[in-house]
Amino acid sequence: MKLIVGLGNPGKEYEHTRHNVGFDVIDFFASKVGATIDKDKFQGLYTKGKVDGEDIILLKPQKFINLSGEVMRKYADYFKVNERDILVIHDDLDLEVGKIKLKERSSSGGHNGMKNIEANFKNNEYKQLKIGISNNKESDTKDYVLGKFSRDDREKIEEAIKKSYDIIIDYINLDFNELQNKYNKR
Q1: 8: burial class by Cβ within 10 Å (0-12, 13-18, 19+)?
Q2: How many CB atoms within 10 Å of residue 32?
Q3: Rg of the chain on CA atoms, in Å
Q4: Cα–Cα distance, 12 to 31 (Å, whole number)
Q5: Is pLDDT above 70 for 109?
């Protein structure tokens, strides 16, 4: 079983902000596979199903992003998902807008949601799909990540979200090294 988690903040005011790219990916993926994320457990919205013969859970933690690990830990324990079978989708300030990078056993990179996940799992064995939101040094980091994309940046993010669908399908079917080789551009 694979647990695929999109990070974001709950609430209308945070919809489609830079920090909620993970939620956007999960919503897009669910719509493409005909799933509805309508179950509520352990302060998370989720759906469980089968894609390409693999049991998967799509999860959007409903605690604020910096507490995502608490929700993920409960899901991993309850559904007996090994850390190596978890893919976390999140925004990354160090990548250009719309750029995608797959990582395994990676650090939090200063992302508070990832720090909380690492603290709750006591390791970093899970996989990461990072989506670049760039870093606007002209504003406070908190204001920036909670802000909306410009029209041009939103177009780049929409392309990344669409590409993420293919990446998640391949994540279900390929070895992670193969996946990284296929999608991580050098």
Answers
A1: buried
A2: 14
A3: 15
A4: 19
A5: no
d(CA 89, CA 30): 14
Q: Distances in Å between the alpha carbon of 106 and those of 109, 114, 165? A: 8, 10, 22
- pTM reported for the whole predicted model: 0.94
Compute the distance between CA of residue 45 and CA of residue 62 in angstroms, rounded to an integer. Answer: 7
Question: What CATH code is assigned to 2-183?
Answer: 3.40.50.1470
- For tokens 């992670």, the residue is 176
The DSSP bridge pattern shows strands 86-92 and 127-132 to be: parallel
**pLDDT grade, residue 77 (50/70/90)?**
very high
For 140-186, the DSSP string reads -HHHHHTSBPPHHHHHHHHHHHHHHHHHHHHHHHS-HHHHHHHH---
Locate the domains of the chain by residue range: 2-183
Q: Which of 174, 176, 182, 164 is nearest to 29 (CA)?
A: 164
Residues designated catalytic:
19
Q: Are 1 and 79 in contact (CB under 8 A)?
A: yes
∠ CA 139-145-151, rounded to 5°: 90
82-94 as b/e: b if 16+ CB within 10 A: ebebbbbbbbbbe
pLDDT tens sequence across 2-34: 999 999 999 999 999 999 999 999 999 999 999
Half-sphere exposure of 183 (CA within 13 A, CB side): 26
